[in-house]
Amino acid sequence: MLVGRALAFLALTWSAYRSLAVPTIAECSLSCSEGFTCRSRVNRNIFNSFCRQPPTSISRSVLEALMLSTAMKCPPHDDCSLLLRVNASLTLHESLWGLEACSMSLDTQEAQCQSVRVRRASRQLQVGRQLQVHFDCFEVSVAQSLYVTLRTVPHFCGVQLDQQYHVEDCRDEDVGRNMPDCFAGKLSYWVDHSRKVVRVQLPEAPGGPDYYLRLCLKRFTCEDAGAAVRVTASRVSRSVSLPYSQALPCLCLEGWSATPDAVRIQTCPFEDDTEILWDAISYHPGSRALTWEPTCPVSGHVNLCWRPGPGAHCLKLEHSGRPAHGRVRYPLVDPQPQLCLKFSTSLGFRVRCPFEKLLFPAWKMTTQPAPSPGHLRIAFFSPSPARFQVCLCHQGKTWPPACHRVLRAMPLPPASVSQGDPTEDPTVAFVDIPRDDACAPSTCIQGWRTDVHFSAPQQLCNLQCAAT
Fold first, then answer.
1. Which CA distances in Å does 117 have to 35, 42, 70, 150, 425?
2. How far is CA 194 from CA 187, 197, 240, 243, 270, in A?
3. Around 15, how many Cα atoms within 13 Å sit in the side-chain half-sphere?
4. What DSSP line would sit under 397-452, residue for residue?
5. Closest among 404, 374, 392 to 468, alpha carbons compared
6. Residues 422-447: pLDDT tens digits?
7. Of 99, 131, 133, nearest to 114 (Cα)?
8. pLDDT tens-digit readout, 200-237
9. Nearest Cα to 317, choosing from 454, 200, 427?
10. What is the pTM of this model?
């Protein structure tokens, strides 16, 4: 009961403590619970993976708590540094000598370990009591991601606690104000759109380190989009101009100090200029492939859709959904003005219709008198051979209309293709529909190509059959 209360109090105290600013300490230190005599030892080797089977008298929950935080050490006349503070507790057993904490950087895989051991005389007197340990001598970096493991000494298999921890970055007020690695985050910039340059102004830093600046494309990593510029501390002008060729939302300004393992600070001046991403569409007439390949990473989905008319809702085509990760390619696409791309991404919803500026559709559908009485002919005109289907649809109170009775258009052999008006494309297919069906109130006739993977339908609605 007392142990539970102690842990609850420790958790509440630590939670309140973590909400405060990053504390400043004079030196790193080690402290143990009252009544325990401890000593520490630093080990910078990689994790020791060997373990021994625990005695049956040791519970796997003998390690009770692992709590982490960040501290800052700012010696006089020197730069500040960051330290990882570890608070841990365990119930001391006669087979235990102490505990060990290891911190591994997820970026570099470098590890550092510190063990805390209870002196033998103290250990024999404190068996069964709770040992609380506080030590803060792990050196860490700004914005570092860590994997921290707490184990017993000796290391018993399966008896350990693990936790991931992220060190504060330069957005934290205390870290941003005191850490040299965050100096690059204090630079100011403005964009000269007419000259296509980003102008950067670095603050004065007498006696400080040199700094690098560059533009980069932020994808999986930030890839070079221009040469890095080194700004020396003795440089008279602290202004730098970085040219760019295209304003992209992932084009970022990156700065870092000329010191080992410096944190790189990034800011993206054009992050709101996303319209260019949706225009990265190309169509290859030979293969009839429609491709969208944005320059910047985009997360979400893409669909082909069709717009029955200007301003109408774009209706998704079946089986056209694709994840928006990199290049999206649709083979055998019918280049109709009504055929569009619909983007549903983390940046919002967009619709682009790459063929809407075509003066004429790639094919046309019209009505003609049918040779057989009581029928209406739906004729298809195309500059090249194509196959078509027709569907009868009923317009209700909701959109799209309900469609049924799919009819296959009859292709015409090349020798019998009717030329009609020489200014028109030849008729390549037709289907005859009973006049009573085609001319019924609230009826639409939809037609689309079947010799391609993706085709936007054309439709004729509310036909004036009496005048035909």
1. 14, 12, 23, 13, 91
2. 22, 8, 17, 11, 15
3. 6
4. SSSSPEEEEEEEPEEPPGGG----STTSPPEEEEEEEEHHHHTSTTEEEEEEESSS
5. 374
6. 445 677 899 999 998 888 888 889 99
7. 99
8. 988 776 666 788 999 999 887 889 998 999 988 777 77
9. 454
10. 0.58
